[in-house]
Write a structure and sequence with these properties.
single chain; 5-stranded antiparallel sheet
Length: 458
């Protein structure tokens, strides 16, 4: 190790100065004062909810404080990033203690229970080894009745948090699995690596979202666990030539929309924030009865002429609303040789009996396309696709399946609107059904000895 002076320790690391608000500076860099301010500001807005346990809060604040010294030593960003992955398990442990409020119960497959008093997480870990899944025990989630396999380590904690409903989002299941793998690679390293301030700041943001969600607080505008987002009321106009126009509905009432080329129009609630994550790229594929848009879109009125739309707005004053973007539920119909596009379950019960035939799947997914792809893979007998519950191959969960009568009898498909919307779509080049795929005879490729994973996620 080379001993350097205090003055040298205080010198700004030029590599950090190259990361600017406008991106990586190849031919320019920030001044030392600007670099110190900018890199602290990137994490200053990342806060934890008030309900978060003090131990987890202290660990997170320690990371934020040390992050500021990356302006003097570039390697600090890698250290902060890697230690942030270790805080994932600490947060899960602290939340487990809070959730169970002094005791937890392990249930044997024969029905008898063993309740332990929790003084700290070491008590939980020892009990998990004693009452392990291999011995026929499962952990009661809270006071039950749900149970989950639990080994006391990171993988068991992650599964418990999912079973307890503390974590949301079907795609986030993959993210949480990846966090566990990254944490294990940090705890048991086999090589070295060097990360950037951008990598470190993103990890801290994701960690804060994860922690806040564990304590029931979603993040406004978050990347992983966003809070419910506001939808705008939009005017959608089109003509026979395929020209379309999208605008906030108040543009129609104040005359900011050119109506010369608009033959038909509709009014919907949708996400329309150009240049942001809440800009729906699929609004041009809107269908009044099927879920063709990427983000939730609600039919309000139409189709009709702009004059009729303006008259409707004078008597009805639709306002913005907020909807959750994760864990949406879709109904998908398989009838004969056709697989239909996803629909809202509350719309299915309003259809004519002739449009309710076939086999229906109730799928929970973050996006309608995820649900649609899973059903097609399921019908094609793709390896790994699950008939029920969480799918290990797709970011979805099958809630139930059967005929409309069976699903209604089990409490699903209750109407959420008073009348079925008129059938119309903005573009007719996307049919509302596709041919059902034929089952495949493909078998999973055999795993070679060199590709087998050794051990398991802790």
């Amino acid at each position: 190790m080379q001993i350097i002076s205090l003055a040298q320790l205080r010198e700004t690391d030029e590599r950090t100065q190259r990361f600017t608000p406008l991106g990586l500076g190849i031919d320019r860099m920030l001044t030392p004062e600007s670099a110190a301010t900018y890199h602290q500001e990137t994490v200053a807005q990342i806060d934890l909810a008030d309900a978060v346990a003090q131990g987890t809060r202290d660990a997170f604040e320690r990371l934020r404080n040390i992050h500021a010294y990356g302006v003097l030593c570039y390697e600090i960003y890698t250290l902060v990033n890697d230690h942030a992955l270790l805080v994932v398990e600490q947060a899960l442990r602290d939340r487990f203690i809070d959730f169970h409020d002094g005791s937890c119960t392990f249930m044997h497959r024969d029905g008898f229970e063993n309740t332990i008093t929790i003084g700290g997480y070491d008590d939980v870990y020892k009990a998990a080894k004693r009452f392990s899944p291999g011995r026929g025990y499962r952990l009661l989630v809270g006071r039950g009745p749900a149970t989950v396999e639990f080994n006391g380590m990171l993988d068991g904690l992650r599964k418990w948090a999912r079973a307890a409903g503390l974590l949301r989002g079907q795609r986030n299941r993959r993210v949480e699995q990846l966090l566990a793998k990254l944490r294990n690679s940090v705890a048991h390293p086999s090589s070295t690596h060097l990360l950037t301030p951008v990598d470190c700041a993103m990890t801290l943001r994701d960690l804060a979202e994860f922690i806040n969600q564990l304590w029931g607080v979603p993040t406004p505008g978050g990347r992983l666990y966003p809070a419910p987002a506001e939808r705008d009321v939009l005017f959608i106009g089109w003509n026979a030539n395929g020209t379309m126009s999208l605008a906030p509905v108040d543009h129609l009432t104040v005359g900011l929309i050119r109506l010369d080329d608009i033959e038909q129009c509709a009014i919907v609630r949708a996400f329309f924030s150009p240049g942001t994550r809440l800009e729906d790229p699929d609004l041009h594929y809107f269908n009044s009865r099927y879920e063709n848009t990427r983000l939730p879109t609600e039919y309000l009125w139409g189709p009709g002429s702009p004059t009729e739309a303006a008259a409707w707005l004078t008597t009805t004053h639709p306002t913005r609303d907020s909807v959750d973007l994760l864990d949406q539920v879709f109904a998908i119909r398989h009838d004969g040789d056709r697989v239909y596009r996803p629909m809202k379950p509350g719309v299915v019960a309003l259809h004519d009996p002739a449009d309710q035939t076939g086999h229906w799947y109730l799928v929970q997914a973050d996006f309608p396309q995820d649900a649609f792809v899973h059903v097609r893979r399921l019908l094609a007998a793709e390896p790994g696709c699950s008939q029920r519950g969480e799918c290990t191959a797709c970011p979805v969960e099958i809630l139930d399946q059967g005929t409309v009568e069976e699903l209604v009898g089990r409490g699903y498909l209750a109407p959420t609107i008073t009348a079925l919307p008129p059938a119309f779509c903005l573009r007719d080049d996307i049919p509302y059904w596709q041919p059902a795929p034929q089952p495949t005879n493909r078998e999973p490729a055999p795993r070679s000895r060199s590709n087998r994973r050794r051990g398991g996620a802790r």
